[in-house]
Amino acid sequence: MFKTFKLHFIALLLFGSFVSSVFAADNHDQDQHEGDIQPWKIGAEIFLNSHSFESDFSDLPGGNFNTENPGVDVNVSKGSFTSGNWLQFQPVGQLLFWNGSEWVPTVPNGERIELKDALDQIISFRSDGVDNKSAIIGEIDNEGGLHEHLNFSIYNVSNTLNGSVGAYRIQLKLFETKPQSDVSVSIATSPISIIFNRGLEHDQFELAVAAADRFIDHSIFVAETGLLTLQRVKALGSYYQAKLQHIGNNQFQLIEAKEIP
User: Fold this and answer.
1) Residue 204 has what DSSP assignment?
2) Same domain (yes/no): 70, 143
Protein backbone atom coordinates (compact mmCIF):
# COMPACT_ATOMS: atom_id res chain seq x y z
CA MET A 1 0.00 0.00 0.00
CA PHE A 2 1.17 3.52 -0.78
CA LYS A 3 2.84 5.15 2.23
CA THR A 4 3.35 8.84 2.93
CA PHE A 5 6.97 9.83 3.41
CA LYS A 6 7.93 12.27 6.14
CA LEU A 7 9.05 15.67 4.83
CA HIS A 8 12.56 15.50 6.28
CA PHE A 9 13.14 12.12 4.64
CA ILE A 10 11.79 13.36 1.32
CA ALA A 11 14.54 15.98 1.35
CA LEU A 12 17.14 13.25 1.76
CA LEU A 13 15.45 11.13 -0.88
CA LEU A 14 15.41 13.87 -3.49
CA PHE A 15 18.77 15.40 -2.91
CA GLY A 16 20.81 12.38 -1.82
CA SER A 17 23.47 11.00 -4.07
CA PHE A 18 22.29 8.57 -6.72
CA VAL A 19 25.04 5.97 -6.90
CA SER A 20 25.24 2.63 -8.65
CA SER A 21 27.82 -0.09 -8.84
CA VAL A 22 26.20 -1.83 -11.78
CA PHE A 23 28.66 -3.14 -14.36
CA ALA A 24 31.62 -2.54 -12.05
CA ALA A 25 34.77 -3.78 -13.73
CA ASP A 26 36.69 -6.55 -12.01
CA ASN A 27 39.83 -5.97 -14.05
CA HIS A 28 41.45 -2.97 -15.69
CA ASP A 29 43.63 -2.74 -18.78
CA GLN A 30 47.26 -2.23 -17.91
CA ASP A 31 47.32 1.18 -19.60
CA GLN A 32 44.19 2.51 -17.89
CA HIS A 33 44.36 4.83 -14.91
CA GLU A 34 42.75 3.71 -11.68
CA GLY A 35 40.11 6.18 -10.55
CA ASP A 36 39.24 7.35 -14.06
CA ILE A 37 35.80 7.01 -15.61
CA GLN A 38 36.25 4.01 -17.92
CA PRO A 39 33.31 3.69 -20.34
CA TRP A 40 32.84 1.10 -23.05
CA LYS A 41 30.13 0.64 -25.66
CA ILE A 42 28.02 -2.34 -26.69
CA GLY A 43 25.50 -1.52 -29.41
CA ALA A 44 23.88 1.80 -28.53
CA GLU A 45 24.49 1.55 -24.77
CA ILE A 46 27.43 2.91 -22.80
CA PHE A 47 28.57 0.92 -19.76
CA LEU A 48 30.81 2.10 -16.92
CA ASN A 49 33.33 0.70 -14.47
CA SER A 50 31.44 2.52 -11.69
CA HIS A 51 28.73 5.12 -11.25
CA SER A 52 30.48 6.95 -8.39
CA PHE A 53 33.90 8.64 -8.55
CA GLU A 54 35.95 10.57 -6.02
CA SER A 55 38.07 13.65 -6.65
CA ASP A 56 40.01 16.20 -4.60
CA PHE A 57 40.34 19.93 -5.19
CA SER A 58 43.58 19.85 -3.21
CA ASP A 59 45.43 17.38 -5.42
CA LEU A 60 48.98 18.47 -6.25
CA PRO A 61 48.62 19.38 -9.96
CA GLY A 62 45.48 21.48 -9.50
CA GLY A 63 46.21 23.34 -6.29
CA ASN A 64 43.53 24.04 -3.70
CA PHE A 65 40.58 24.79 -5.98
CA ASN A 66 41.19 22.96 -9.27
CA THR A 67 41.50 19.36 -10.37
CA GLU A 68 41.68 17.39 -13.61
CA ASN A 69 40.35 14.21 -12.01
CA PRO A 70 38.61 11.97 -12.70
CA GLY A 71 39.69 11.58 -16.30
CA VAL A 72 37.77 9.70 -18.96
CA ASP A 73 39.59 6.64 -20.33
CA VAL A 74 37.67 4.38 -22.74
CA ASN A 75 38.05 0.64 -22.10
CA VAL A 76 38.56 -0.40 -25.73
CA SER A 77 39.01 -4.08 -24.86
CA LYS A 78 35.43 -4.23 -23.54
CA GLY A 79 33.83 -2.21 -26.31
CA SER A 80 35.24 0.52 -28.52
CA PHE A 81 33.45 3.65 -29.72
CA THR A 82 33.21 4.83 -33.33
CA SER A 83 36.36 6.51 -34.62
CA GLY A 84 35.86 10.22 -35.29
CA ASN A 85 32.74 10.51 -33.15
CA TRP A 86 32.57 12.77 -30.11
CA LEU A 87 32.13 11.62 -26.52
CA GLN A 88 30.08 14.14 -24.57
CA PHE A 89 28.21 14.49 -21.30
CA GLN A 90 25.00 16.17 -20.24
CA PRO A 91 24.88 17.74 -16.74
CA VAL A 92 21.91 16.56 -14.65
CA GLY A 93 20.46 17.36 -11.25
CA GLN A 94 22.09 20.05 -9.14
CA LEU A 95 25.17 20.72 -7.03
CA LEU A 96 24.89 19.15 -3.55
CA PHE A 97 26.94 19.88 -0.42
CA TRP A 98 27.92 17.60 2.47
CA ASN A 99 27.56 19.66 5.67
CA GLY A 100 29.17 17.06 7.93
CA SER A 101 26.01 15.12 8.68
CA GLU A 102 23.89 15.05 5.52
CA TRP A 103 23.77 15.95 1.83
CA VAL A 104 21.84 19.18 1.26
CA PRO A 105 20.81 21.20 -1.84
CA THR A 106 22.33 24.43 -0.48
CA VAL A 107 25.93 25.65 -0.36
CA PRO A 108 27.50 27.81 2.37
CA ASN A 109 28.86 30.66 0.25
CA GLY A 110 27.30 30.55 -3.20
CA GLU A 111 29.76 27.94 -4.45
CA ARG A 112 29.57 26.54 -7.95
CA ILE A 113 31.70 24.00 -9.79
CA GLU A 114 32.78 24.86 -13.31
CA LEU A 115 34.10 22.51 -15.97
CA LYS A 116 36.05 23.59 -19.05
CA ASP A 117 35.47 21.15 -21.89
CA ALA A 118 37.58 20.25 -24.93
CA LEU A 119 36.25 23.28 -26.85
CA ASP A 120 36.90 25.61 -23.86
CA GLN A 121 33.18 25.89 -23.11
CA ILE A 122 32.38 26.53 -19.45
CA ILE A 123 29.76 24.25 -17.89
CA SER A 124 28.43 25.36 -14.50
CA PHE A 125 27.01 23.18 -11.71
CA ARG A 126 25.10 25.19 -9.08
CA SER A 127 22.82 24.44 -6.16
CA ASP A 128 19.89 25.90 -8.14
CA GLY A 129 20.52 23.71 -11.17
CA VAL A 130 22.95 22.97 -13.97
CA ASP A 131 23.63 24.25 -17.46
CA ASN A 132 21.48 22.71 -20.16
CA LYS A 133 24.27 22.62 -22.72
CA SER A 134 26.36 19.50 -23.15
CA ALA A 135 30.14 19.34 -22.77
CA ILE A 136 32.59 17.86 -25.26
CA ILE A 137 35.03 15.40 -23.68
CA GLY A 138 36.92 14.66 -26.89
CA GLU A 139 37.11 12.91 -30.24
CA ILE A 140 37.30 9.12 -30.47
CA ASP A 141 40.65 8.02 -31.92
CA ASN A 142 41.36 5.53 -34.71
CA GLU A 143 41.32 2.60 -32.28
CA GLY A 144 37.92 3.52 -30.84
CA GLY A 145 39.39 4.92 -27.64
CA LEU A 146 39.83 8.24 -25.86
CA HIS A 147 41.73 9.40 -22.78
CA GLU A 148 41.11 12.98 -21.66
CA HIS A 149 41.29 14.97 -18.43
CA LEU A 150 39.08 18.06 -18.26
CA ASN A 151 39.52 20.85 -15.72
CA PHE A 152 37.12 21.21 -12.76
CA SER A 153 37.24 24.39 -10.62
CA ILE A 154 35.30 25.63 -7.59
CA TYR A 155 34.26 29.27 -7.18
CA ASN A 156 32.49 31.14 -4.39
CA VAL A 157 29.80 33.83 -4.49
CA SER A 158 32.48 36.49 -5.16
CA ASN A 159 33.44 34.69 -8.39
CA THR A 160 36.78 33.81 -6.81
CA LEU A 161 38.54 30.46 -6.90
CA ASN A 162 37.59 29.27 -3.43
CA GLY A 163 35.15 27.01 -1.62
CA SER A 164 33.93 26.24 1.88
CA VAL A 165 35.35 23.13 3.52
CA GLY A 166 33.16 20.11 2.81
CA ALA A 167 32.29 17.69 0.02
CA TYR A 168 30.48 18.57 -3.20
CA ARG A 169 28.64 16.28 -5.61
CA ILE A 170 27.68 16.67 -9.26
CA GLN A 171 26.04 14.33 -11.78
CA LEU A 172 26.49 13.91 -15.50
CA LYS A 173 25.41 11.46 -18.19
CA LEU A 174 27.73 10.24 -20.97
CA PHE A 175 26.66 10.01 -24.59
CA GLU A 176 28.30 9.61 -28.00
CA THR A 177 27.49 11.68 -31.09
CA LYS A 178 28.70 12.16 -34.61
CA PRO A 179 31.05 15.16 -35.06
CA GLN A 180 29.43 18.58 -34.74
CA SER A 181 26.20 17.00 -33.47
CA ASP A 182 24.31 16.80 -30.20
CA VAL A 183 22.13 13.84 -31.27
CA SER A 184 23.20 10.70 -29.42
CA VAL A 185 24.14 7.49 -31.22
CA SER A 186 24.88 5.75 -27.90
CA ILE A 187 24.11 6.73 -24.32
CA ALA A 188 24.61 5.61 -20.72
CA THR A 189 21.31 4.70 -19.06
CA SER A 190 22.28 6.14 -15.67
CA PRO A 191 24.20 9.26 -14.63
CA ILE A 192 27.66 9.35 -13.07
CA SER A 193 28.19 10.97 -9.67
CA ILE A 194 31.47 12.77 -8.93
CA ILE A 195 32.12 13.61 -5.28
CA PHE A 196 34.76 16.30 -4.69
CA ASN A 197 36.70 16.79 -1.47
CA ARG A 198 37.32 20.40 -0.52
CA GLY A 199 39.58 20.45 2.53
CA LEU A 200 38.14 17.54 4.53
CA GLU A 201 40.35 14.99 6.27
CA HIS A 202 40.29 11.62 4.54
CA ASP A 203 38.09 9.88 7.12
CA GLN A 204 35.58 12.75 7.08
CA PHE A 205 35.42 12.67 3.29
CA GLU A 206 34.84 8.92 3.28
CA LEU A 207 31.88 9.46 5.60
CA ALA A 208 30.38 11.74 2.96
CA VAL A 209 31.01 9.13 0.25
CA ALA A 210 29.48 6.38 2.39
CA ALA A 211 26.43 8.53 3.12
CA ALA A 212 25.94 9.03 -0.61
CA ASP A 213 26.16 5.28 -1.16
CA ARG A 214 23.50 4.49 1.43
CA PHE A 215 20.52 6.35 0.06
CA ILE A 216 19.84 5.08 -3.41
CA ASP A 217 20.75 1.79 -5.00
CA HIS A 218 20.07 2.98 -8.55
CA SER A 219 18.33 5.96 -10.11
CA ILE A 220 17.59 7.50 -13.47
CA PHE A 221 16.87 11.20 -14.06
CA VAL A 222 15.62 12.27 -17.50
CA ALA A 223 16.28 15.99 -17.83
CA GLU A 224 13.99 16.37 -20.85
CA THR A 225 10.90 15.23 -18.92
CA GLY A 226 11.99 16.02 -15.36
CA LEU A 227 11.14 12.46 -14.28
CA LEU A 228 13.28 10.91 -11.54
CA THR A 229 12.98 7.14 -11.05
CA LEU A 230 14.36 5.64 -7.85
CA GLN A 231 14.70 1.91 -8.32
CA ARG A 232 15.34 1.04 -4.69
CA VAL A 233 15.36 3.39 -1.71
CA LYS A 234 14.99 2.67 2.00
CA ALA A 235 12.35 4.60 3.98
CA LEU A 236 10.91 3.94 7.40
CA GLY A 237 12.40 0.45 7.54
CA SER A 238 11.09 -0.69 4.14
CA TYR A 239 12.31 -0.49 0.53
CA TYR A 240 10.41 1.37 -2.19
CA GLN A 241 10.50 1.99 -5.92
CA ALA A 242 9.42 5.58 -6.53
CA LYS A 243 8.85 8.07 -9.32
CA LEU A 244 9.04 11.82 -8.80
CA GLN A 245 8.34 14.74 -11.12
CA HIS A 246 10.44 17.90 -11.09
CA ILE A 247 8.03 20.84 -10.64
CA GLY A 248 10.57 23.67 -10.68
CA ASN A 249 12.28 25.74 -7.99
CA ASN A 250 14.37 22.70 -6.94
CA GLN A 251 11.24 20.78 -5.90
CA PHE A 252 9.98 17.31 -6.81
CA GLN A 253 6.50 15.86 -6.47
CA LEU A 254 6.06 12.20 -5.58
CA ILE A 255 3.77 10.70 -8.25
CA GLU A 256 4.15 6.96 -7.65
CA ALA A 257 5.65 4.65 -5.03
CA LYS A 258 5.36 0.96 -4.30
CA GLU A 259 6.88 -1.18 -1.61
CA ILE A 260 9.34 -3.80 -2.86
CA PRO A 261 11.10 -6.74 -1.11
Assistant:
1) H
2) yes
Do residues 134 and 90 touch, judged by C-beta distance below 8 A?
Answer: yes
Residue 208 and residue 192: Cα distance in Å, rounded?
16
Domains of the chain: total: 2
Instruction: Provide the pLDDT for residue 224.
Output: 62
List all residues 6 or more positions away from 122 whose beta carbon is below 8 Å from its beta carbon. 114, 115, 116
Q: Tell me the one-letter amino acid at 18.
A: F
Q: Edge-to-edge strands of the sheet including 219-222? A: 219-222, 227-235, 238-248, 251-260
The mean pLDDT value of the chain amounts to 82
Question: Cα–chain-centroid distance for residue 119?
Answer: 21
* Rounded percentage of the chain residues whose pLDDT exceeds 90: 56
Please enumerate in sequence order all residues whose Cβ is within 8 A of that of 193, keeping only pairs 6 or more positions apart, or say none: 17, 18, 19, 51, 52, 53, 169, 170, 171, 212
Average pLDDT over residues 215-240: 62
Q: How far apart are CA 208 and CA 82, in angstroms?
A: 37
pLDDT at 223 > cutoff 50: yes
Burial (0-12, 13-18, 19+ Cβ within 10 Å), 78: middle
Residue 193 sits in the same domain as residue 230: no
Domain that holds residue 143: 20-25+32-214
CB 217 within 8 A of CB 232: yes
Q: What is the pLDDT of residues 122-166, one digit of tens each?
A: 999 999 999 878 999 999 999 999 999 999 999 999 999 999 999
> 74 and 151 share a domain?
yes
Q: Can you give the pLDDT at residue 57?
A: 93
Quick check: 6 pLDDT over 70?
no
